[in-house]
Design goal:
The complex is a heterodimer of chains A (200) and B (82). Chain A is of the alpha/beta class. Helices cover 44% and strands 22% of the residues of chain A. The longest helix of chain A is centred in the last third of the chain and has 20 residues. With 82 residues, chain B is an all-alpha fold. The longest helix of chain B has 16 residues. The chains are: A alpha/beta (200), B mainly alpha (82).
């Protein structure tokens, strides 16, 4: 079962005619599984869970809700693999207005400690890697391809859109190569018997 | 599509570009001064790497200005063409 908010993505998956995969245009918040899952893989969705300028407590509550849902949907010992961009050597105040307002106006990134706090007593961390260099390379490849096909792109969408896109790719490559942004890949294991939190 | 430029041409290009961005006279820009002291924001520094790409016709790292922190050093690096 795959969840996406994009009609185009769901259609693309359906056209692959992989009968074992069902794509649904549905938010995780509305999802009701028919049976428990062995594993959940969440790729590049976490960034959009918290809106920019959400108070810290509310942000943590949104993250916590997501992990509690995943906990409910998994069988005993189930795994959750989470891939998300996170603030590295930065915070929301450091972001260029262009990225915050023009490119991702709806989203705020997590910090690693917020994820760690939100999974507490629901999941244990088994693996944690930061692959920000992978994204720097990906963004460079996209920019090289755009440059190679620049005339076609300008004909289709016009010079200003191409320039904005180039600026976005260039700034993003800078953020990942400089470590302003991290790419976290976290392997989590369900805690089957969470101990209740005791008040001291 | 590489468009070979000399160190002096590149220095002149960067100096003029920064002077225009910062709305100051070209003679006020010291090519041996660190970019951070020339009053560029991160976004402007990344935009400068984009302007340089067009000027010399070669794809460049957006971190160029951090890797080579003065106008002189960027120009010397780009003249070598590696």
């Amino acid at each position: 079962v795959g969840l996406t908010l994009s009609d185009a993505q769901a259609q693309w998956i359906d056209e692959k005619r992989a009968p074992e995969v069902t794509a649904r245009v549905e938010s995780w918040a509305d999802h009701v599984p028919t049976s428990r899952y062995d594993a959940i893989v969440s790729i590049e969705a976490f960034e959009a869970f918290a809106k920019l300028r959400l108070p810290a407590d509310d942000k943590l509550r949104v993250y916590r809700t997501f992990f509690e849902r995943c906990h409910d949907w998994l069988r005993s010992g189930g795994r959750l693999s989470l891939q998300t961009i996170a603030y590295g050597n930065s915070g929301p105040e450091d972001f260029a207005d262009f990225i915050a307002n023009d490119v991702f106006p709806e989203s705020d990134l997590p910090k690693l400690h917020e994820i760690a706090e939100a999974v507490e007593r629901r999941f244990e961390v088994e693996t944690l890697v930061n692959h920000r260099d992978h994204y720097a390379r990906t963004l460079r490849c996209w920019r090289e391809r755009l440059l190679a096909a620049r005339d076609t792109a300008v004909r289709e969408v016009g010079e200003p859109v191409v320039e904005r896109y180039e600026e976005y790719l260039r700034l993003s490559e800078y953020m990942f190569s400089a470590g302003t942004c991290d790419l976290l890949r976290i392997g989590l294991r369900r805690i089957d018997h969470p101990r209740p939190t005791r008040r001291s | 599509m590489t468009n070979k430029k000399t160190r002096h041409e590149i220095e002149a290009f960067i100096t003029t570009w920064i002077a225009r961005e910062r709305k100051v006279e070209v003679k006020e820009i010291d090519p041996t001064e660190a970019f951070t002291n020339l009053g560029l924001t991160s976004r402007q520094a990344v935009a400068l790497s984009g302007a340089l790409e067009k000027y010399i016709g070669q794809i460049l790292s957006p971190s160029l200005v951090w890797d080579y922190p003065t106008i002189e050093q960027v120009a010397a690096h780009l003249e070598k063409g590696d």
